[in-house]
Amino acid sequence: MTELPNSTDRKMGLVIDLDTCVGCHACVISCKGWNTENYGAPLSDQNAYGADPSGTFLNRVHSYEVQPPEGHAQLVHFPKSCLHCEDAPCVTVCPTGASYKRVEDGIVLVNESNCIGCGLCAWSCPYGARELDLAEGVMKKCTLCVDRIYNENLPEVDRVPSCVRTCPAGARHFGDLGDPDSDVSKLVAERGGMDLMPEMGTKPVNKYLPPRPKDQIDDQIDILAPLLAPVAEEPKGFLGWLDKALDKLPGHSEGGSN
Amino acid sequence: MHPAPSVIIFTTLSGLGFGLLTFLGLGKPEVTGWVAFVFYAIAFGFAVGGLLASTFHLGRPERAWRAFSQWKTSWLSREGICAVAALVVMGLFAFGAVFLDTHWWALGWIGAALSLATVFTTSMIYTQLKTIPRWNMSLTPVMFLSFSLAGGSLLAGAEALAPWLLAIAGAVQLAYWAKGDQAFATSGTDMGTATGLGDRGTVRAFEPPHTGSNYLLREFVHVVGRKHAQKLRVIAFALGFALPLICLILPVEGLMLKHLLAGIAVLLHIAGVATSRWLFFAQAEHVVGLYYGKR
Amino acid sequence: MAHTQPQLDTSPPVSEEIRQTTCYMCACRCGINVHMKTDDTGKKRVAYIEGNRDHPVNKGVLCAKGSAGIMQHNAPSRLRAPMKRVGPRGSGKFEEISWDEALDIAAGWLEPIRKDNPEKLAFFTGRDQSQSFTSFWAQNFGTCNYAAHGGFCSVNMATAGIYTMGGAFWEFGQPDWDHTKLFMLFGVAEDHDSNPIKMGIGKIKARGARVIGVNPIRSGYNAVADDWVGITPGTDGLFILSLVHVLMKAGKIDLEYLSQFTNAPVLVNQDPDSPDYGLFLRDDHGAPLVINRKTGQLAPFDMHGVRPDLGGSFTMGDITHVSVFQLMAQRYLSDDYAPEAVAERCGIPAKRIRSIAAELARVAFDEAFEIEREWTDFRGETHKTMKGRPVAMHSMRGVSAHANGFQTCRALHVLQILLGTVEAPGGFRFKPPYPKPVTAHPAPHCRVTPNKPLDGPHLGFVHGPEHLALKTDGSPARIDKAFTWENPMSSHGLMHMVISNAHAGDPYKIDTLFMYMANMSWNSSMNTRGVMEMLTDTDENGDYVIPRIIYSDAYSSEMVAYADLILPDTTYLERHDCISLLDRPICEADGAADAIRWPVVEPDRDVRGFQTVLVQLANKMKLPGFTNEDGTAKWQDYADYIVNHERKPGIGPLAGFRGEDGSKVGRGEVNPEQLNKYIENGGFFIEHIPEEAQYFKPWNMAYQDWAVNLGLYDSPQPYLFQLYVEPLRKFQLAAEGHGERQPPEHLRARIKETMDPLPIWYETDQHGNDGYTVNALTQRPMAMYHSWGTQNAWLRQIHGRNPLYVPTKLMRENGLSDGDWARVSSPHGEITVPVMEMAALNENTVWTWNAIGKRKGAWALEENAPEATKGFLLNHLIHELLPPKGDGMRWANSDPITGQAAWFDLKVKIEKAAAPDDMQESQPAVPAQDSPVGTGPKELKWKVGK
Ligand SMILES: Nc1nc2c(c(=O)[nH]1)N[C@H]1C(S)=C(S)[C@@H](COP(=O)(O)OP(=O)(O)OC[C@H]3O[C@@H](n4cnc5c(=O)[nH]c(N)nc54)[C@H](O)[C@@H]3O)O[C@H]1N2
Ligand SMILES: Nc1nc2c(c(=O)[nH]1)N[C@H]1C(S)=C(S)[C@@H](COP(=O)(O)OP(=O)(O)OC[C@H]3O[C@@H](n4cnc5c(=O)[nH]c(N)nc54)[C@H](O)[C@@H]3O)O[C@H]1N2
Ligand code: SF4
Ligand code: SF4
Ligand code: SF4
Ligand code: SF4
Ligand code: SF4
Ligand SMILES: [Mo]
Predict the structure, then answer these.
(1) Mean pLDDT across chain A, nearest whole number?
(2) ipTM higher than 0.90?
């Protein structure tokens, strides 16, 4: 099981739009709620009401400040969960076979009943996508909501990950990134979707859509300036213009029959 | 990385234990009976004790047996298998030496090879991790092996070899530190690649995803002050290699004194290697720290 | 070898049952699916909460707070039973008592007040959603001292909107997300429409529309904005009027819209000596007059076929009248508003102001579009299409919570109206029951008669000095001094002044302070330290200066410690609630909607829904509106009230499923099965607006008729947008010496200056701010709701402490680096707090997250919780009064027009504080309160099912 499949039938994953994510943490808590109640052991919390609260989460939202060479600093909200890598080092390092990548959809999972909680898989993951649950002593990670996406007890529209269903801004997209015709693949192609730490050679399935260019409005003034040409220099002239402009309004030139 | 006592004890002791087993398997010293018993007790004590210590690191130690199954891909699995194989083979070899006064040399050589292989597989658990540039170097296995052989030779009382092996291990240690200090910077991974935002400008972590703590921060983000680390390196080097070497080459008279000095050398060496291992973990920076704006 | 992997059940059962109700982790009121499972004791419990896809507000999505509802509902901080205070106020020492005893105590205090002087009860509620009910209770009790939280929240928005355009931002309208191409957001971090705004931004960004964020801080929505305008706090008015200047000058305004739908053509008296100076010329019926371009004659604005002249003028006798639009041209074409003239004060380069104006013009006019829908306006004119102007704007407290916020918000509405975007496709749209002209709202009432109900609703809209809530001697009638010369248009009251005024006995002393769902000793008060002292202060006899405090909370908050009697509420999953069209509804621009909450689980503690407790108290006191003629009670509990109360015949709290068989909408007889119908329908009800009525609603007769049918009003109420607000002018006139009711001398100048009928910008009162030059703001974190979020084990891991974010320049200047501590002081106080650098921030502004800091002992947290040791409140630095001016007056830190609390006018200075070792805790550190509920468990492993 620890061997990666040579290829997977599909490459299910997430596409996260950094241009739209407002950093609301909805996906974080929705994920916590679903996965506490569902797949495997609950996501526990230690010192829940005390000095140093800490708990297991499968999805976290960071934020970064980017200072371009010129112009204002920008802020980017940055959700991060397991990227379901094609060359997932977390799988091959696992001594027990608890970590595996599914052949049918490429989802990387932990079989909790085999996991010894050695932590090595988390050590090998560049993205911090795995957290060892302190109460249960086993490794937890994003399941891509494998217990939702095929779940026949859910209406068809709801067979998407919990974080995707809940994201208010619609910044999270789910689909088959192995199929070039899927909506997610098209989005990635259109928007230049990128990999995190490509140099690690993990070949992440999840992609990130980069923020669009910002603060461009000043540069447009040259094109837009004619729009602002004054209609008259004097306030009096302004009223003269007003008179003429009103006359030109449609529907007003002939009598009051309409 | 969090310098967990369990892994420090494990790698330090098992390195020494398997190092000694290697020498014993090769017949250095060629001992039998009670003397052999003492040697093997020390070797097995270290090796098994180290392995046991490592299970404290596990969330589910009662399932540790499952770790033998994935030898095809997992260095941790391979290490487990090598360790058990080395212990079994060397156990048989020891049985012969202690109780039957015989040496089954074929077993000894195989055992020695397995012991070294165990140390090697241990080192590969760390070396394989691209996520930790300081470990992801060919010098890492060299370091583990050289330490193990140096410590083994010290314990084995291999007077002739030990000073050389200590000197080599010491040199490897210096090289490892020198190279390791560059590793993160030259790995090509930084906040820019971690976030994919690097080509837009300078990336800086702003609000963390949680003000509370979590597993990742506890496990991967450990900051050692530069000065503190420098001090510890001097201590590790002195205790682990320089002082033991001096103990060994001091021209002293008398067997008692010699043995006493050898004993002191062993203790110094263990303390030094443990310190070095503490630094090995504590100074290892996992790339995940970048996401938190930390290294 | 074939790849092997574990067999997995990918179709596990999700839950046993879904109960649909309304979220109340914040005031946005999304629909939720509460998944229920049976636990190992056989009890049905909440297992998972997700958004309701059919719900008009959230359409399935749910925010972090909403998803964390399960942790709130089960929080260890929940109060367990009624309590009476046994230690000194503020100590948190209580004894649990029975409900019978609690109601006896409360009635024992209230009954004599009602008999003798009902105004001695001050009843103020927080962000509950039952204000139509709580005000009904207060009115029947007879006190004039009632309001909810709006005065400290965003009354500037509400009043500026309603006086100007008969509807407001806040949650009363929304951008036309489906059509807008340029969205400008002023001063919003999160807002009440939490999920809808996120959905909207996501939607328009997917379409490639442009988002411009005007905010000193570039986080959240402003981080995803395409363009960021890092404005200097408090100067939006100037920036907006500069946009107005540029657009008017270029003629990029919608003349047709202005002439038809606004009072721009209405004629204004220009004779400085006339008592009507600045008032409208009206006909005998009171209709404002315009010049009809077709005839050149005077005509009432609403005459059939009239073509109002924007440039009209008219001389009657020797009094000249000119159109509002001419007055606007005179004012805004002035170079005072040129981008170059305002750039420095606003912190925005002139070029950027021009670029934005140009882009507004381009999108509004070059990207105008038409929807093929015929509609008929109130003058009988039929329009073949609906003309779209795809520019939408939204704003909230960043504009509102300044003492010039009313006029700034007015300016913003005027900008929108000049572009012709309000109620046009692609622009800003109202949600029912809005639009509604300001004249259709009640005026405030304050006449108190012992043993009798109040003479009418407490809150409303004044149209001139005659509506002020003054006693016969001219002194304020209300404890919060709402509707007085200090803040004439304070339509939501001034909750932030109640404790301070009651303590000062100014305008008079009260007997009982009754509060509900507002943490008034902590994060919702200004001058937190001072308020705690006022609440515990004693007189010369050793009695508390505020004699009695009754409080209803559901959780062990800071305020609980200051009450004498605690009436513990249920959680939102345990009670009936009604989100009513009479109150703060959940409508969409395309439909009228309301909703309920119902007990999806029964409380496991001795707690009662507060509204039910009010019914029980009313019944005990036999309050008039609650009692039948035969002396029996009309309603047993809140659910009973929701279903059976009728405001007017056929109109009740809920609009859906009325009539005996539940088939009537809006108007209809009481339906005993109404609540069950709501539950069957997912907890809500929506009635869609017909297509031809969906835009131009204030003037669209199809909409007007639809609204009348639904019971939103009794007859069509078309009206003009009030670019020029005449009631403001009436206050100015009084200040100029006209009329019988005259302001006190010390307020005359301020009224003349600030209550301008056309939007102006003025700098807020900087008296006492010398040396304090840095703006200090707060923002709401999206994953926290005020103080409630902290008790939530999941959310507090995200925001467990709050640094002060400091711009790079100030970090450098003060030698600060991340994690250092700084002393931050205002003219009023000092705090010492940890700092963090932020580059994407106005270079003269610091900020922090709102309401993260907690008092030790509150919220069932351990005393060393980071919220109490590292977290802090900016409120310690903000006073409810301005620094004394030596004239003996108490000048409120509020907008002089509306009384809106000016939270964001705060100016501070900042300096590096002692090394972190000496400073382990944010200062001031308030001593701990006892926790009546203990502290929460160490570890959580939440799982209901197996
Ligand atoms: N510095 C600064 N201060 C501010 C602001 C700011 O921007 N900056 N904003 C101001 C604004 S706009 C507002 S609205 C206020 C908000 O401030 P508050 O109105 O005080 O809001 P909360 O902290 O949510 O406190 C409400 C109380 O309601 C209780 N509660 C929660 N749920 C229930 C329930 O179901 N039933 C009952 N009975 N009680 C319940 C909570 O336990 C809490 O004690 O803060 C104001 N304070
Ligand atoms: N998650 C969550 N949602 C909430 C609440 C909550 O506590 N948590 N509270 C609810 C309540 S009661 C309210 S009133 C609403 C308020 O919702 P918002 O109006 O979003 O209120 P704030 O979070 O106070 O944000 C005010 C914004 O105005 C900016 N600002 C301050 N001064 C100026 C200025 O002069 N000009 C401009 N342009 N911007 C300025 C600040 O930087 C900040 O971004 O949110 C409601 N929704
Ligand atoms: S993101 Fe990490 S845990 Fe997920 S597949 Fe890749 S390496 Fe493994
Ligand atoms: S923690 Fe569990 S899943 Fe991860 S490597 Fe160890 S055994 Fe495998
Ligand atoms: S896919 Fe499911 S498990 Fe993964 S982050 Fe989203 S909600 Fe969590
Ligand atoms: S829910 Fe969506 S918008 Fe919110 S943090 Fe997650 S990805 Fe971003
Ligand atoms: S915005 Fe969030 S907390 Fe507020 S009602 Fe909606 S889901 Fe609940
Ligand atoms: Mo508010």
Answers:
(1) 94
(2) yes
Q: Tell whether A91 is covered by a domain.
A: no
A156 touches chain C (CB under 8 A): no
Q: Tell which B residues from 188 to 207 touch C, by Cβ distance under 8 Å.
A: 204, 206-207
Segment C671-684, tens digit of pLDDT:
999 999 999 999 99
Ligand 5 atom closest to the Cα of residue A164 is: 6
Q: Which two tokens stand for residue A66?
A: 């980017």
| Preferred mutation among C794, C805, C841, C935 to probe A, highest tally of A CBs within 10 A | C794
Q: Evaluate whether residue A171 is within a structural domain.
A: yes
As to burial, measured by CB atoms within 10 angstroms (0-12 exposed, 13-18 middle, 19+ buried), residue C681 is middle
Quick one: pLDDT at residue A3?
87
Asked whether residue A257 carries a pLDDT value surpassing 50, the answer given is no
Q: Does B186 touch chain C (CB under 8 A)?
A: no
Beta bridge partners of C939: A46
Q: Total structural domains in chain A?
A: 1
- pLDDT tens track for A210-227: 999 999 999 888 888 889
What's this model's pTM, rounded to 2 decimal places? Answer: 0.97
Q: How confident is the model at residue C181 (pLDDT cuts 50, 70, 90)?
A: very high
Question: Which homologous superfamily is B5-292 in?
Answer: Formate dehydrogenase/DMSO reductase domain (1.20.1630.10)
Give the start-to-end residue ranges of the domains of chain B. Answer: 5-292
C-alpha distance from residue C636 to each of C110, C605, C626 (Å): 20, 20, 10
Q: Indicate which ligand has the atom closest to the C-alpha of C586.
A: 7
Mean predicted lDDT score pLDDT of chain B: 95
Query: Is C219 in the A-facing interface, judged by CB distances under 8 Å?
Result: yes
Please give the mean pLDDT across all residues of chain C.
96
Residue A159 lies in a domain: yes
CA distance B166 to chain C (A): 43
Residue range C749-804, pLDDT digits in tens: 999 999 999 999 999 999 999 999 999 999 999 999 999 999 999 999 999 999 99
Contact predicate C849/C789, CB 8 Å: no
**Closest atom of ligand 7 relative to the C57 alpha carbon:** 6
**Residue among B204, B206, B211 whose CB faces C798 most closely:** B211
Is residue C92 within 8 A of residue C561, CB to CB? The reply is yes
A169 Cα–ligand 5 center, Å: 16
Write out chain B residues lying below 8 Å of C800, CB-based. Answer: 210-212
Q: Evaluate whether residue A120 is within a structural domain.
A: no
- A137 touches ligand 4 (CB under 6 Å): no
How many angstroms separate the CA atoms of B265 and B273, rounded? 12
Q: Tell me the CATH number at A71.
A: 3.30.70.20
pLDDT per residue as tens digits for the range C222-254: 999 999 999 999 999 999 999 999 999 999 999
Q: What tens digit of pLDDT does each residue of C542-579 get?
A: 999 999 999 999 999 999 999 999 999 999 999 999 99
A173 touches chain C (CB under 8 A): no
Range of the domain at A148: 12-85+143-209
A209 CA from centroid of ligand 3 (Å)? 19
DSSP C644-671: H--SBTTB-S--SSBSTTS-B-SS----
Nearest CA to ligand 4 atom 8: A94
Of A75, A139, A196, which is closest to B194 when you measure between CB atoms? Answer: A196
pLDDT of residue C2: 59
- pLDDT bracket for residue C127 (50, 70, 90): confident
Backbone angles phi, psi at B157, to 5 degrees: 70, 30
